[in-house]
Amino acid sequence: MLTDLPSRTALVRRARRINRELALLYPDAHCELNFTSPLELLIATILSAQCTDKRVNLVTPVLFARYRTAADYAAADRGEVEKIIQSTGFFRAKTTSIIGLGQALCDRFGGAVPARLGDLITLPGVGRKTANVVLGNAFGVPGITVDTHFARLARRFGWTTQADPDKIEQEVGSLIPRAEWTALSLRLIWHGRRVCHARRPACGACGLARLCPSFGEGPIDEATARKLVKAGPFS
Fold it and tell me: Are 136 and 173 in contact (CB under 8 A)?
């Protein structure tokens, strides 16, 4: 559990060391949504809300084969889209976002996905999390993706006490060099999916145990903890 708060300098040093250790633990960390273009990643990320990447990756091959451009989505038949994406959950709302997204891209951006955060978040169904996923993984623009895993780990590491994603993004961004934001996001998400679970983190099998102020929230016995570790990939 968190105890004494570290000084600002100590907090920055520990955060950057944890990031370096995560890089060693997950040298191949990458976005686990399958895509070949910014538009495909944008659509896939919208579909991933309240849904696993694995499920999204089962759905998108059919969707992407049928709809290839923003104009295709703008003119899409609602019933057809709903049928294709139904298994991702909240399919009616997601269909509304996808069709509206296609229309907005055609109306305001010439059918292309913009590479600016301020533009992306004006699109239907796109918030900062989705925008940062696209910026970081499709355009190479550094961004922090605060999903449930990232938020949980940032609090456990003592980087923030916030629950609001925007505030978490701001506080963590002040600790880590901007160039590392996308990579950090991917590493934290991978670690959260595999080791640092919400209910029973595998503390005794965690490569960050000696650096983590929350060590002990889960089983510290290595044999017990190793049974909790989940193997990837999750795509």
Answer: no
Cβ atoms within 10 Å of 125's Cβ, excluding its own: 21
Max Cα–Cα distance, the chain, nearest Å? 57
CATH superfamily of 38-138: Hypothetical protein; domain 2 (1.10.340.30)
Residues carrying an active site annotation = 129, 147
> What would the pLDDT profile of 76-100 be if each residue is shown by its tens digit?
999 999 999 999 999 999 999 999 9
User: For the residues of 99-164, what is the DSSP string, one character each?
Assistant: HHHHHHHHHHHTTSPPS-HHHHTTSTT--HHHHHHHHHHHS--------HHHHHHHHHTTS----S
- Vertex 217: Cα angle to 209 and 29 (nearest 5): 50
Q: What is the pTM of this model?
A: 0.91
In CATH terms, the fold of domain 8-29+144-226 is: Endonuclease Iii, domain 2 (1.10.1670)
The closest alpha carbon to 149, from 180, 181, 203, 185, belongs to 185
